[in-house]
Amino acid sequence: MSSSFSPEAQPQVASKTSSTTATLPEVTYGYPGRHAARMPWRERIRNFTPAWFYVTMGFSIITVNFMVMQWHHENIVLKVLFLIFFFSTLLVISAFIGLNIARYTMFPDLWKKVWDHPDEAMYFSCLPISFIPFQNGMSEGIDLWWGFAGHNSAKFLYFTFGFWAATTILGYAIAFVCFKKMITVHRHDMKNMTGAWIAPFGALVVDGSAGTIMTPFLQEHNPSLAWFAALWATMTVMIGLSMAILIMAILLQRMFIDGLPPAKHIWSSWSVLSVTTQAGFTILALGGAYNTLLPVDYGTSKLLTHPAIGEIVYAIGVTFGMVLWFVSIFALIFSIWAVWTVSRKEGLIFGPNCWAWLFPFGVFAIHTYGNALYFDSQFFRVLSIILNITTILGGTGMIIITVPQFFRGTMFTYSYVVDDEAAGVLYNYKQVDTEVGVEVSRSPSVEEK
What we know:
This protein has 449 residues and is mostly helical. Helices cover 66% and strands 4% of the residues.
């Protein structure tokens, strides 16, 4: 058994491939027989990358889009369609979690390989992102809209609060593990950098939103818990947003130097819109949430007891949310242009990553709806209706395209670890010598794999 040492950050290719640039675009895009025959279920499970949670993210956000229609909000058709998508989301999330469990049970060696992969590991963060709109569907839709648990039921509200708290803890855990792996294991270079790096921290931005929306309702039942939710949500959003902004700067530098990412990674460019619009909506809602909590009527803090503090924080939140809405317009245009440009050049490969547009676009529609509420603007009302309908119709179209291909087994084409192994790609990993504290580069040989 042999090993080679190299300081290079780029993936190495085994001797059976002649050059990285010549072969990878052809051999890493999926199962070799996908055009000729169905992939066996065992192979589908082996190729079931965490990027499939892009699909559950899309399902989840559509449930919320039904709830934020400006006109005919109480229409029974909307409410029934909401229920259909809500329970469909529950079914799909459960099935995909089961398939992931099956993947790492049947192929236990993949668990470490996925976490050590510089791209595929990032997509685990799509799971907590999927939970947040689903949780909003429980609190805003099942409870308040349908009144199944009793309108604004305290017990159901506490249940959804617990669900949200558990989701944020999961989001923090995944973000920390990915952050640690990126520093201590993954060896990167600028050319191979993608928007997927944003995902673990974008998930924290999304996680904070649900607590923000719950805060005014918690205030009616438990002011202390409402304060905890608001502060926890603020901390989560600020940590996620600050880290995401730093990584977006690196992504911009990468594109200035090396151009747009390849077709297999280009859909991750939508992560930029996901962060900007979700942060904008959350900060917008945080302003309203703190306005219900402030000023406090206890203590000696001149800041918190000032009669105008609630309105000041409210104005700051609404203004900053509006600023991020403008930034989101640029992010939306960039995402569409990037996917269009690369797909025209390299071709469109349909897989779970193609769902990456649906969640951020749906959040942008909800963000626009929030602007309509806070500014009492007819322009934003009309625009939000157009964006919400576009999201619902676009998501329905994605379902119609995806379901047949999923059951035919012809779209399991985004398993980075499996594809890289098939192509003979070897990644250099960082290895820290704990005795002397020296970092070395380790590139496993073909035999060691």
